[in-house]
Amino acid sequence: MKEMLNIQNLNFSYEDFSLKNINLKLYENKIYAVLGRNGCGKSTLLNCIDNIEMADRAKYIAYVPQHNTSNELSVYDTVMLGRKPYMTFSPSMRDHEIVSKTMKQFNLSRITLKSTNELSGGEFQKVCIARSFAQNTPVLLMDEPTNNLDVLNQHEIFNIIKISNKTVLCVIHDINLAIKYADEFIFMKDGEIVKQGDKKIITKKLLKEIYGLESHIFEEDGEKFIIV
């Protein structure tokens, strides 16, 4: 399996918080869910990875941050921003083709000409994710991508991610949504990775350690789900 990203001995500090000795290997075509309580370092980890210095980084890693700001740009032009790393002066025919295809993929064609500041929170979130897909990178970092999305749109987005053949590192709070779509799970606490692996690592003991909550783990038709 091809290695897509290799983070070794990452340490980062600001104010009174530190990421400590982060070691992480990501492989092609896998979805990695980053889980843990607020303030444990999940977003900081993604920010650090997004700032890695490498040639043509914007053609290799796309990033959907937790907070995005709308403006007067149209939905089409906002998604087109994902093509910026490939442009010289103006969008090429190839850029327009990719943006049009991405708009259809995310069911955004009906709001092509709307300004992003006219959109609902959920619509704007989908536009931001579509922009990252238009960037056409093999690695995608996503910080709570299902924010502001209803249940149907959450599953629609993750189904698109699942078939994208990208390596995805995704911060997510809904552990059951993570279990349904992720291939591996990275549990963090106090700036450190406590445990990484597939569904087998998810136990009542681990959830108690990470979240401080008692939980019940059920399996039905080969699917695991959590009730707390």
Tell me roughly what share of residues is in helical segments.
25-40%
* N-to-C CA distance: 35 Å
The main sheet orders its strands as 4-5-6-3-7-8
Share of β-strand residues: 25-35%
The geometry reads as globular
Ranges where pLDDT stays below 50 over 5 or more residues in a row are none
Would you count the extended β strands for me?
Answer: 10
> What is the average of the pLDDT values?
94
Biggest sheet character: 6 strands, mixed
CA gyration radius, whole angstroms: 18 Å
What would you note in describing this structure?
Helix 3 packs across helix 4. The chain is about 30% helix and about 30% strand. The mean pLDDT is about 95. Strands 4-5-6-3-7-8 form a six-stranded mixed sheet, with helices on both faces. Strands 1-2 form a two-stranded antiparallel sheet. Strands 9-10 form a two-stranded antiparallel sheet. The protein is α/β, with parallel strands linked by helices.
Describe how the helices and strands are arranged.
Layout: E1 3-14, E2 17-27, E3 31-35, H1 42-50, E4 61-64, H2 75-80, H3 93-105, H4 121-134, E5 139-143, H5 151-162, E6 167-171, H6 175-181, E7 184-189, E8 192-197, H7 204-211, E9 216-220, E10 223-227
Parallel strand pairs: 3-6, 3-7, 4-5, 5-6
Antiparallel strand pairs: 1-2, 7-8, 9-10
Helix pairs in contact: 3-4
